[in-house]
Amino acid sequence: MIRTATGASAAFLACFLGLAPALALDASLQPDGPGSFSLSANGLSIGVDVQPAAENTFRAEVRVTEGGRVVAATTLDELYSAFSLPGVRFVEMDASNDRPEVQMTVWTGGAHCCNEVSVFSKAEDSWDKIDFGSFDSRSDVGAFIDADFDGVHEIITYDDRFLYEFASYAGSWAPMRIFGVRDGQARDVTREPQFADVVRRSLDRMGELPDAREPRNSWLATYAATLVLLGEDDPLDFAVGSHDPSVEWGMVRCTVAEVDYQCPEGKETVLDFEAALTDFLTRTGYLE
């Protein structure tokens, strides 16, 4: 099981972390087949029209209406299952405008993948679609939470780039990640100071250090990354001094360009844990 800061429902996560869940979470809809679906609140309406398409797929059109006028729309083709139909809801993510945002989530399917999340937000003269990207399917990307109690909600999830890096999917740990809207764009806001207490509480949820092997090293990588986010001194020291040196998962690097995703024979090298962890945290932007 993935042990992360966001493996529970949005309501449970909010309660556990002592946060304020989004008041608009109940204003949502999830189509389960062909038909026309609608949702209205706060002077806005969301319409979702689902039609059967070729080869047992679906086609869905999502529209946002303000004052009887369609202000945003998108069409999704070749949705292969009713499970992949777009779910929509109202949520406040940008206090600079006079309307709540409209969130849309689409499940793409695949192994551990993926929830694609986007938000329609009112700009000065138009409504813009803000893409937050794809999240691991076990990530609770529906967790729109007012993490700093300012009336504006964030997406609290985890950094799925840590999955498979130092352990298998089932043995992986990953640090908290917080996304918000800044200047009309999707931003990683995890390091903003108002979220420091939320990030620090995620350390408490990690529990005890695993005894050995890959889960131990993955736990330590997540712990180190979280200390980096908090600006702690010497954030890698505990991880480097406590890792399992018998593990090679995540330590192997190719010294030349891969060919068809494979390292040519004899061109692999094995790093120690400190070097592998430093390299990974640098590549993912935790370290400069």
Descriptive account of the structure:
- This protein is α+β, with helices and mostly antiparallel strands.
- Helices cover 18% and strands 33% of the residues.
- It contains five helices and 16 strands.
- Strands 1-11-12-13-14 form a five-stranded antiparallel sheet, covered by helices on one side. Strands 2-7-8-9-10 form a five-stranded antiparallel sheet, with no helix packed on it.
- A hairpin with a 5-residue loop joins strand 4 and strand 5.
- Helix 2 runs antiparallel to helix 3 (213-229).
- It is globular, with a radius of gyration of 21 Å.
- Residues 1-9 and 21-25 have low confidence and may be disordered.
Q: For the report, how would you describe the main beta sheet?
A: 5 strands, antiparallel
Through-space gap between termini: 31 Å
Low-confidence stretches: 1-9, 21-25
Oligomer: single chain
The H-and-E topology, N to C, reads as HEEEEEEEEEEEEEEHHHEEH
What average pLDDT do the residues reach?
87
Please, how many helices? 5
Structural class: alpha+beta
Number of strands: 16
Compact overview of the structure:
The protein is of the alpha+beta class and 288 residues long. It contains five helices and 16 strands.
Brief descriptors of the model:
288 residues, alpha+beta, 5 helices, 18% helix, disordered N terminus
